[in-house]
Amino acid sequence: MNVSAWSIRNPIPAILLFLLLTLWGILSFRAMKIQQFMDVELPTVTVSAALPGAAPAQMETEVARKIENAVATLQGIKHIYTKVQDGAALVTVEFRLEKPIQEAVDDVRDAVARIRADLPADLRDPAVSKVNLSGAPILTYTIASPRMDDEALSWFVDNTVTKALLSARGVGAVARVGGVSREVRVELDPARMLALNATAADVSRQLRRIQQEASGGRADIGGAEQSVRTIATVRSAMELATMDIVLSDGRRVRLDQLATVSDGVAEQRSAALLDGRPVVGFEITRSRGAGEVDVADNVVRALAQLKAEHPHIEIAEAFNFVDPVIENYEGSMILLLEGAALAVLVVWLFLRDWRATLVSAAALPLSAIPTFAVMHLLGFTLNVVTLLSMSLVVGILVDDAIVEIENIMRHLRMGKTPYQAAMEAADEIGLAVIATTFTLIAVFLPTAFMSGVAGKYFVQFGWTAAIAVFFSLVV
Question: Which of 76, 278, 365, 405 makes the best surface tag, with the fewest CB within 10 Å?
Answer without folding.
Answer: 278
